Amino acid sequence: MALHFVIEDAAAASPGDVLTLAGAEAHHAATVRRVRPGEHVTVGDGRGTWLTGTCESAGGGEVSVRIATREDRPAPERRLVLVQALAKGDRDELAVQAATELGADLIIPWQASRSVSRWDGQKREKGRARWATIVREAAKQAHRAWIPEVAAATDVRALEQLAHGGGMLVLEPTAQSRLSEIDLGADGDIVLVVGPEGGLAPDELDRLVAAGARAVRLGQTVLRTSTAGPAALAVASTRLGRW
Fold this sequence. Notes:
Blueprint: E1 3-6, E2 18-22, H1 23-32, E3 40-44, E4 49-59, E5 62-72, E6 80-85, H2 91-101, E7 106-110, H3 123-141, E8 149-150, H4 156-163, E9 168-171, E10 190-194, H5 202-211, E11 214-216, H6 225-239
Parallel strand pairs: 1-3, 6-7, 6-10, 7-8, 9-10, 9-11
Antiparallel strand pairs: 2-5, 3-4, 4-5
């Protein structure tokens, strides 16, 4: 499979143009992935632009790509939104990485009451930026035309407002309804909420359900916070016909 790179200038490119990769993207292309002249590559801007081309030169901190074709891919009409609770270690980061590969269109960090990790003060933006970097690299690896947005960290009050719009599904191992069987409706975003280690606090679950969310389970087993979201995204992608 052709190597894929992301640069903002891709949005203005047309067939026949030569795009120049510089900085970190050129280093990754030439030094890490060792792209060579004559090799086919793809280039995007992370906002739907999809270019195919051929590497013309690689060296001196730059990589030049001659564009052959251009495609503008629309964003999904129904977004898959992952609300991922902050978790200790790298478990939330593992979840974000896999969720991006599996099709999440928007990722919302959630500081749940049981979250061991806390994004207080300057950690809020630092943490969001860290997740955004993980998402960007995972989207490149997965050859996604659209790079998911990472929103600012939220709390249960903001999630209640989001639940009012319908389409929110809270992953809860004790729920009666299965994600694989419920009606997902014909329109609107699907918002999947994943709790931290130990699950959601009872009052959080009650508040979200009262606001309009539905509690669902994936199966008979209890998944970790790092795997529950990606597993739910796989089910939802199948139900929506993406897979």
